[in-house]
Give the backbone structure.
Amino acid sequence: MNHEYIIKQLKKLSNPKNVEGMARFGIKSKHKLGIRKPALRKLASQITKDPSLSNKTVRHRLAGQLWSSEILEARILASMIDVPELVTEKQMDYWITGFDSWDLCDQVCMNLLDKTPLAYRKAVEWSKREPEFEKRAGYALMACLAWHDKEAPDSKFIKFFPHIKLGATDERNFVKKAVNWALRQIGKRNKKLNGKAIKLAREIEKMDSKSARWIAKDALRELSSEPVQSRFN
């Protein structure tokens, strides 16, 4: 099972109607096939279980080849099959420059990048970048770490707070939504972080920025809600 074979399989799964729908949801990647995530996950499972790809180095190389295709679904698939411990800093920095939609950004962050040893450092570093989807990657990574890294101490997430506050005034849609996501996800981890996230949201709410006020209002609505609070009681 090589990358040429996989690309052929992806093209067989192509759905033009889904491509049109993706555009309506703001997924404007140039090269997309309209393949739904369950189909990609099924193919990823087949790849990782293939005896010829049991060697992690071989699978890591395959992920790089799929990424080079520039096809949206091939790149998402690459993030599903790659090996986190083999991902280098150079690769991480290179891949985020290829983010051209919120979907690709978020999928790569949650499937792969948040499992790498450099994830916490890169989340902060990328949050300072200027390109919209590269900056989004920083905040999406914060959100994914808060979601997936169950054993991490609160201190790791508290360190994100100054950067969340700094990003709250970015008026670009895909940045502000990721900032909001990071704040909400951290605030749902436990009672202590919930209180600190609510406090930060109230600080952000006072900032002279339409984006900041939206982020704060939306975060406060969820973090103060009965369903979230009942989990801590």
